[in-house]
């Protein structure tokens, strides 16, 4: 078993690849002196408060790594079933958005 495959037993390779792309995009952003909004107030992305969730969703919409975040959330639904990912607080919303985006591509 490779180190990459052993990272988390049962995680699909495409999820690992998507996570790696997200991590690299975040690193690039940090090197430019910027941080994704979820890294400055992480608790807001896992709140139960509708108001806080709305604020997190709005912040995500302006995030430069939103596409990598969405790709990871779609590739690893076990990890992303809780919280706001790529401006969507509900995994079903991500599925609908992914189908819409694949049709328009």
What would the average pLDDT be, to the nearest integer?
Answer: 85
- Distance separating the two termini: 36 Å
Individual helix count: 5
What is the tally of beta strands?
A: 0
Radius of gyration, in Å, reads 14 Å
Share of β-strand residues: under 5%
N to C succession of SSEs: HHHHH
Total count of domains: 1
User: Low-confidence parts, pLDDT < 50 over ≥5 residues?
Assistant: none
Oligomer state equals single chain
Alpha-beta classification: mainly alpha
Largest sheet: none
The helical percent reads 55-70%
Bulk shape: globular
Put the structure in a nutshell.
With 105 residues, the protein is mainly α. The mean pLDDT is 85. The protein contains 5 helices and no strands.
Question: What attributes characterize this protein structure?
Answer:
105 residues, mainly alpha, 5 helices, 0% strand, globular
Description:
Helix content is 56%, strand content 0%. The chain is mostly helical and 105 residues long. The protein has one domain (13-104). It is globular and about 30 Å long. It starts with 12 loop residues before the first helix and ends with a helix. The relative contact order is 0.14.
Layout of strands and helices, then pairs:
Layout: H1 13-31, H2 37-40, H3 50-61, H4 66-75, H5 91-104
Helix pairs in contact: 1-4
